[in-house]
Amino acid sequence: MLSNSSKNSPRCRTARYIVVDIETSGLFPQRGARIIEIGAVVIEQEKVVEEFTSLINCGVKVPKHIQKIHGITDEMLKGQPSPAGVFLEFLRLMAAGTLVAHNLKFERHFLRYELSRLGIGFTGNGICTLKMGKKLFPYLPNYRLETVARYLLGELPAGLRLHRALDDARLTAMVWMEMERR
């Protein structure tokens, strides 16, 4: 059960949370899809204390129908860092933190796949705002991040670009903190 006040919520107040979002070249890593962008927001004591974002050059082509979703093109990935450096930095952020994501199952599946390619194990248990939204607000028409955010926040923040990793991580962080307050 969530408390009515963030001041009463020991989870949000006393721990470190890493809110993550990824953009991919497809839906299934077992079919060759890879993470091509990652964004993370670190929350401590109900405040954002750090942000991290990077495009990732995995050497894969981004299909046109996927480019239409997030706007990331093959050209944008040229010259970007390889997975090894990016994911090692992400793991540094994850130290002593709890993962938060909207659709944690999807994010965790891709993160496990990418880290396994580097010989690194990853459990990635955490908090799923998608599942929380379904439980707390069973009357919403759907549970897309933007739908839950509009319900909780009234409107989306100005300048937000949906389906880009850092902006989606920022929005998920706002949604999660608001869920904690309720």
Descriptive notes:
With 182 residues, the protein is of the alpha/beta class. The protein is 42% helix and 19% strand. The protein has helices at residues 10-14, 64-70, 74-77, 83-94, 104-117, 129-136, 145-153, 165-181, and strands spanning 16-24, 35-44, 47-55, 98-101, 126-128. A 5-stranded mixed β-sheet has the order 3-2-1-4-5, sandwiched between helices. Helix 6 packs across helix 8. The longest helix is centred in the last third of the chain and has 17 residues, at 165-181. The model is unreliable at 1-10 (pLDDT under 50).
Would you summarize the structure shown here?
The protein has 182 residues and is of the alpha/beta class.
State which percent range the strand residues make up.
15-25%
The geometry reads as globular
The average pLDDT is: 91
Question: How many DSSP H or I helices?
Answer: 8
Trace the largest sheet across and list its strands. Answer: 3-2-1-4-5
Structural class: alpha/beta
Low-confidence stretches: 1-10
How far apart the termini lie comes to 9 Å
Helix content: 40-55%
Radius of gyration from CA coordinates: 16 Å
Describe the sheet with the most strands: 5 strands, mixed
